[in-house]
Protein: Pyruvate dehydrogenase
Organism: Georgenia alba
Amino acid sequence: MARSVAEHLVNQLVAAGVERIYGIVGDSLNPIVDAVRRTDGISWVQVRHEEAAAFAAAAEAEVTGKLTACAGSCGPGNLHLINGLYDANRSRLPVLAIASHIPSEQIGTQFFQETHPDRLFNEASVYSEMISTAKQVPRVTRTAIQHALTVPGVAVLTLPGDVADEHVPDDDAPILVPGACPARVVPHEDDVDALAEAINRAKKVTLFVGAGARGAREEVLELADLASAPVGHSLRGKEIIQYENPHDVGMSGLLGYGACQEAMEEADLLVLVGTDFPYDAFLPDDVPTAQIDIDVSHLGRRTRLDVPVHGDVGETLRLLNTRIVRKKDDKFLRSMVKKHAGIMTKVVGAYTRNVEKHKPIHPEYAAVQLDETAAEDAVFTVDTGMNNVWAARYLTPNGRRRVIGSFLHGSMANALPHAIGAAMAEPGRQVVALAGDGGLSMLLGELLTVKAYDLPVKIVVFNNSSLGMVKLEMLVEGLPSHATDSPPVDYRNIALAMGIPAVQVEEPRDLRKALQDGLDRPGPALIEVLTDPNALSIPPSITSGQIRGFATAMTKEVFGGGMGEVMSMARSNLRNLPR
């Protein structure tokens, strides 16, 4: 039986394992939506904003590793996808986006809602093509799926509504070409020898581990043991390497904590393991550096590079570890681990003393309470900003939990739509959206999506009525904070008006029970925590320029009549100063 382009594409998606398409229906998308209605094994998830559709698809791909899909109607509809697709593409997640288009005969005439999605999405994808005739199907649609799965990343198909209704002439063609197994990227023996020689020669080795080490945890820990090396990590590497790791010294970067920064700076060989860590200011330029990465374009683009190794982390370390001579001197490792333990004890103790009397609630305390009450296999989705800091420092990985965020693109408002995708993909798993009031307010309508599908998403809102990370950025630039605060909003009552059970927590002593009750109840729930707006993240390495910026900004605050706010901020943040 002859099938339309829309029907053929939907059947291809089903064959590739796609179970749902996130989006908002619209005229140019009607053929796709109707094909979904008539096809078993796939459903349409109606969100309130297409940006949320892209984020939801990305989160589903993150937790399942499978191809996912989202869609937007012509013009403004698919333009709304672009931020979420940028995020998914930078995270190398297999997402196929359908950007429906105006009638093909009108393209190029400045028709109503005309854009050029096949051009606009180039930078946010690994593949972006327009289907202008049914004769391109199934080859172009199949190629898009293969790109998304194997590069991996975002593939965008621009599809005019009239072409979507055309019949596929070669309907007997295979729906999909069978996918190949992932290739092994094995490093050159000479590079492995050079790295082994460098590690064996060095007296103080530090490993800094990123998301590229996924699947190679045991090999990394074996190398750390052989080299008596402290192990730091990036934010995306945290859930892979931090737990049950006696070599752990924390994290570096703007969100960092612990002894990681000092371990990198004091080493005489730093080994970057599967990380394209972007913040070069936190990478020492006076320490010999080796780097292992599966993507050759990553080698040396952030910092100095003395020993490059192009290869998969697991493949590389299985060859490397047999060449390492076990170090007898572990003084450097012991000193860094001891320093890390001391720093972490001071930070924890600073906000646990008399905490039940402190209002507004310390956000650090709230993060710890959430960590202790959440399930052992929970999926946390985390908003960009200060919530990233508290999640990075206080959510405990264990090998089963996942922490998802816009860690490479840095978009606000990702936590709630990410949670929608995660909950759709794994309905029996606890999903917690750790949202800031700034992020939640940007895509607030997605609470209606959560309610409409009765998703068991638990939204924990850290409400400080402030854009805390932006405030910090202004202060380090020597600027008093401006336009970072917002009028108080009662998100509990907004959720209740939408039919979502919700509570607001102002007293620290009430927090644990509120979290436990919300996490335990079936269906959605929102727990709003009123947190300290003056609690800011202090980076693990503070430059003289940043200190001058703080001093300048505080002086301006005082002379502007903000003495009270300055004192409040000082009291709130002394507990976070590195010691």
